[in-house]
């Protein structure tokens, strides 16, 4: 690209879903994916506590649910052919004396990089090299799956949340044939890694066995390879204490820098926003020739931190509130807070991110 040599290393395009919320921010690339019009909240006994229409709050509000595989394929389709080197697992990383970064891949290939943009997720070895601590487990885990309806799924374009005691769930259609669902539950520890889909399915069903039957149906219609369990983690980027987003010519993007809990549905959205801001800063540096790449990385970190840090804290607090298991507090939530006090505006406000088209 542009006479420079870039390599995009990727371990795998794993599945999952991203629930993207946009407001007037030119994400034309996602326009073909299903728009979600409403949000409904139910209690575990199936009572509808509240329902909102997004456009009633703000005509410009857009919500889209995009399957992770589709999102990655869409983004990858805009790159030159062969730009992504798949199955390239980073095994080791070191700083060399000439200021470059030495990357060693699992298959033995060694690469010396002048610039490294690391978007390698929550367990990023690059973040570790830069002095970031491991993300913190926040006391909740989540099951996720993609139910498949070969004859077409029957749901409205609506996000459905169901609140229980210490357990909450949700589902949303992501295409004509697929429906994403999640169940979030309290657990004092992340527990052992389980990959057997029949055990995962059984555990997920157990959590919602007396809930509205649509959830159990969705779990039953979920192919084995799309059901996963994840422990929820985050990392708070304390000012002056946490390392900055970049060190010299290495920069972090997305979860590698700022893992946040999914309670606001913003992790992937923020990773996309990061990439836009970073692209702009780099383009300005390359065009003007007065700013170095290192300064462009620093400017990116300074611009993004005020958005990322409060969102990470807010996502944590929202999770702590929604995962309450005290029956009295849950009764107040179901009978007063959700039906009478919750407003859609503050729920969507964090999704506002506006930028000029690139
Ligand atoms: C239960 C749950 C629900 C969520 N819901 C939402 C939501 O509704 N909306 C939303 O916006 N976000 C949501 N998120 C968050 C979202 O999934 C993440 O924030 C997002 O995936 C971060 O993107 P990323 O590209 O930074 O990292 P990742 O998506 O984790 O991608 C990292 C990539 O790096 C690659 N990689 C990792 N290690 C290596 C290595 N050693 N060598 C080479 N490659 C490597 C991996 O293959 C992977 O493709 C949710 C998360 C969870 C857990």
Structure, briefly:
With 358 residues, the protein is an alpha+beta fold. It has nine helices and 17 strands. It holds the Pfam family FAD_binding_3.
Keywords, separated by commas or semicolons:
three-stranded antiparallel beta sheet, binds flavin-adenine dinucleotide, D-Amino Acid Oxidase, Chain A, domain 2, 17 strands, alpha+beta, globular, 31% helix, single chain
Characterise the protein shown here.
InterPro entries: FAD-bd, FAD/NAD-bd_sf, MOase. This protein has a domain at 138-233: D-Amino Acid Oxidase, Chain A, domain 2 (2-Layer Sandwich), CATH 3.30.9. The chain contains nine helices and 17 strands. The chain has helices at 54-57, 68-77, 125-129, 197-207, 213-220, 267-288, 293-322, 327-341, 344-349; strands at residues 8-9, 17-23, 38-43, 48-53, 61-67, 84-85, 90-95, 101-105, 110-113, 116-118, 136-148, 158-163, 167-173, 178-186, 228-234, 246-247, 250-252. It has a seven-stranded mixed beta sheet, with helices on both faces. A three-stranded antiparallel beta sheet has the order 7-8-9. A hairpin with a 3-residue loop joins strand 12 and strand 13 (167-173). The structure holds flavin-adenine dinucleotide (FAD).
What percent of residues adopt helix (DSSP H or I)? 25-40%
Q: Uncertain regions: pLDDT < 50 for 5+ in a row? A: 11-18
Determine and state the CATH class of the domain at 138-233. Alpha Beta
Strand content: 25-35%
CATH architecture of the domain at 138-233: 2-Layer Sandwich
Ligands bound to this protein structure: flavin-adenine dinucleotide
Going across the biggest sheet, name each strand in turn: 4-3-12-13-14-11-15
Q: Provide the gyration radius in Å.
A: 21 Å
Secondary-structure element pattern, one letter each? EEEEHEHEEEEEHEEEEHHEEEHHHH
Summarize the main sheet. 7 strands, mixed
User: How many H/I helices?
Assistant: 9
CATH third-tier fold name of the domain at 138-233: D-Amino Acid Oxidase, Chain A, domain 2
Domain FAD-binding: 76-307
Protein name: Monooxygenase 2 isoform X2
Pfam families: FAD_binding_3
Keywords: Monooxygenase, Oxidoreductase
């Amino acid at each position: 690209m542009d006479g420079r040599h870039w390599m995009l290393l990727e371990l795998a395009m794993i599945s999952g879903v991203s629930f993207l919320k946009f407001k007037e921010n030119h994400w034309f690339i996602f326009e073909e994916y299903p728009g979600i019009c409403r949000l409904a909240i139910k209690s575990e006994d199936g009572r509808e506590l509240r329902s909102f229409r997004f456009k009633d709050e703000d005509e410009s509000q857009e919500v889209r649910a995009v399957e992770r595989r589709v999102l990655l394929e869409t983004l990858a389709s805009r790159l030159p052919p062969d730009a992504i080197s798949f199955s390239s697992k980073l095994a080791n990383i070191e700083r060399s004396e000439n200021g470059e970064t030495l990357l060693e891949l699992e298959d033995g290939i060694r690469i010396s990089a002048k610039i490294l943009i690391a978007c390698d997720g929550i367990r990023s070895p690059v973040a570790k090299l830069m002095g970031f601590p491991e993300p913190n487990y926040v006391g909740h885990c989540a099951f996720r799956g993609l139910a498949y309806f070969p004859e077409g799924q029957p749901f409205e374009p609506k996000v459905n949340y169901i609140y229980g005691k210490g357990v909450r769930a949700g589902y949303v259609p992501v295409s004509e044939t697929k429906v994403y669902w999640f169940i979030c539950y309290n657990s004092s520890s992340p527990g052992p890694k389980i990959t057997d889909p029949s055990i995962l399915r059984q555990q997920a069903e157990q959590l919602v066995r007396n809930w509205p039957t649509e959830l159990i149906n969705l779990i039953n219609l979920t192919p084995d390879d799309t059901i996963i369990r994840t422990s929820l983690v985050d990392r708070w980027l304390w000012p002056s204490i946490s390392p900055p987003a970049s060190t010299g010519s290495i920069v972090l993007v997305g979860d590698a820098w700022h893992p946040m809990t999914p309670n606001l549905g913003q992790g992937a959205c923020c990773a996309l926003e990061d990439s836009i801001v970073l692209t702009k800063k780099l383009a300005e540096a390359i065009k003007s020739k007065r700013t170095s790449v290192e300064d462009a990385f620093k400017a990116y970190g300074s611009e993004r931190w005020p958005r990322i840090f409060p969102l990470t804290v807010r996502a944590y607090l929202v999770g702590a509130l929604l995962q309450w298991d005290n029956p009295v507090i849950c009764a107040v939530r179901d009978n007063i807070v959700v039906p009478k006090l919750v407003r859609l505006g503050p729920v969507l406000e964090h999704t506002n991110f506006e930028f000029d088209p690139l």
